[in-house]
Amino acid sequence: MELTVIGRAGGVGRVGEACSGYLVQEGQTRVLLDCGAGVASSLQRVCALESLDHVVISHWHPDHASDAGVLVHGRIIQRILGATANTLHFYAPASTPDLERVGKADNGCASHAIKAGECLSIGDIDIDFMRTRHPVECLAMRLVGRHTGDVLVYTADGALTEGLVEFSQGADLLLAECSLYPPTSGEAPGHMNADDVAELARRVNPGTLVLTHLPFYGRREDLLECVRTRWGGCAYLAGELDCYGVGAAPAAGEDACAGDAGDEAPTCAGERG
Question: Domains in the chain, ordered, with CATH?
Answer without folding.
Answer: 2-257 (3.60.15.10)
